[in-house]
Each structure stands twice: as C-alpha cells, then as structure tokens.
Design brief:
Shape of chain B: globular
Helix content of chain B: under 10%
Strand content of chain B: over 45%
Radius of gyration of chain B: 14 Å
Oligomer: heterodimer
Structural class of chain B: mainly beta
Distance between the termini of chain B: 32 Å
Largest sheet of chain A: 6 strands, mixed
Strand content of chain A: over 45%
Largest interface: A-B, 30 and 27 residues
Order of helices and strands of chain A: EEEEEEEEEEEE
Number of helices of chain A: 0
Order of helices and strands of chain B: EEEEEEEEEEE
Shape of chain A: globular
C-alpha cells in the first residue's frame, strides 16, 4: 500500500537556524509529492510540489525540497527560519495519474520556533 | 488569499440541530472534497465529487450528507451529530479531466470549525 511517513512528530528550532523536515514515501513508482503547511486553526497551504524533472524544488516562503529516489525521501528545508514558520507541516503523496486515487498524508511534523 | 471559500468559519450546534457547511471555488476545478481534521492529526478524506457526481464516500456516517449543486459549490449537511464529530472540516478542490494529469494537487479552504454540544 502507498504510504508517506514523517518520522518527526515535533521539532524545535531557534529563529534564524536552518531547518530540515523529513518525509519518506513508499510507492511502486515515483509519486507526485507535496508539502503543505497549516497554521493553527487554518486550512492547508501548498508550499511546493514535485512531479518530475529537477529534483530540487523551490517553493513559497523560502522553502525548498529535494527528491531523492535512492532514499525514497522528499525532505523539506529552509536555510533560516522565522518565527512565523511555526506551524504544522504535512508531506503528501499521490500515485501518478490514477483516477480516483486519494492524496495520502503523512502524520505531520509540528514546528516550534524559539527566540 | 485562498480561492476556496468556506462558510461559516465557526459553527456550534446541538445534537438535534440541522446545519450546513458551504464551500465555493471559482477556479474551474471539477473535483471537490470534504475532509475532517481532528487536532494534531492529518486531514481524513470524507467525500469526493467529480463532475458533480459523488465518486468516493469513505464510509462516512449518514448523519453527514454531502451535496454538489454545481461545479462551483459543495455543501455538507449535518444532522444529529455527536460530540465526537467536533473537528475542523476542510473543503478542497482539484483540477481533473480535460487531458490534464491527475496529480492529486489540492487547493484547500480555511476550514469550518465545528463544535457539537
């Protein structure tokens, strides 16, 4: 079965420090991959997506992610976090081009920023 | 700014009430979704409408009744809910058909926070 795993439930980072959130996927073929961010009480906002091509993907708010087929990973990175980055982050995957296929979410990583 | 609009943002209802959640999108998407999200959990899929027809029902109790009046609107009718139904209800839409690959990319609304007393 297809799955997306986020190993870290909660990460705390100092403001200005770099960030890496981990995501691993298990699919028969390369899926479409996404990172969403959710601030408290809000909906999910798409940060970035990977469909094919360049394995380093740039997103909004200064985030990037790197697709590594050999490691089945799609980790999210930011060189310098801001207090406003505190939120819940969800990695998600979708089996390519299958109709009626559902988006599979990871369990989420909660990011706390300390001054 | 989200292009998927959900109303109301907050709803408190008793277990005998009948209420509705509404969702609207004007991106020309032909698939619309309802998700339920409990605190500190990922969204759970409830229903999918594709071209205004119900295509997925994730074994949701009948006290939740979805409706898709047209390609831009999605409703979720609520009746005889239980306190455990209290959650954030998210609407989403996606582009399907027309020769466009089904990538699974979803556009979410801000959600409706439901409290059942």
């Amino acid at each position: 079965a297809q799955s997306v795993t986020q190993p870290d439930i909660h990460i705390t980072v100092s403001e200005g420090a770099s960030l890496e959130l981990r995501c691993n996927y298990s699919y028969g073929a390369t899926p479409y991959l996404f990172w969403y961010v959710q601030s408290p009480g809000q909906g999910l906002q798409l940060l970035l997506k990977y469909f094919s091509g360049d394995t380093l993907v740039q997103g909004i708010k200064g985030f990037e992610a790197e697709f590594k087929r050999s490691q089945s990973s799609f980790n999210l990175r930011k060189p310098s976090v801001h207090w406003s980055d505190a939120a819940e982050y969800f990695c998600a995957g979708h089996r390519s081009n299958f109709g009626n296929e559902k988006l599979t979410f990871g369990t989420g990583t909660r990011l706390t920023i300390i001054p | 700014d989200t292009e998927v609009t959900q109303t109301p943002k907050h709803l408190v209802m008793g277990m005998t009430n009948k209420k509705s959640l509404k969702c609207e999108q004007h991106m020309g998407h032909r698939a619309m979704y309802w998700y339920k999200q409990k605190a500190k959990k990922p969204p759970e899929l409830m229903f999918v409408y594709s071209y205004e027809k119900l295509s997925i029902n994730e074994s949701v109790p009948s006290r939740f009744s979805p409706e898709c009046p047209n390609s831009s609107l999605l409703n979720l009718h609520l009746h005889a809910l239980q306190p455990e139904d209290s959650a954030l209800y998210l609407c989403a839409s996606s582009q399907v058909g027309g020769g466009i690959p089904n990538t699974g990319e979803l556009f979410f609304g801000e959600g409706s926070r439901l409290t059942v007393l």
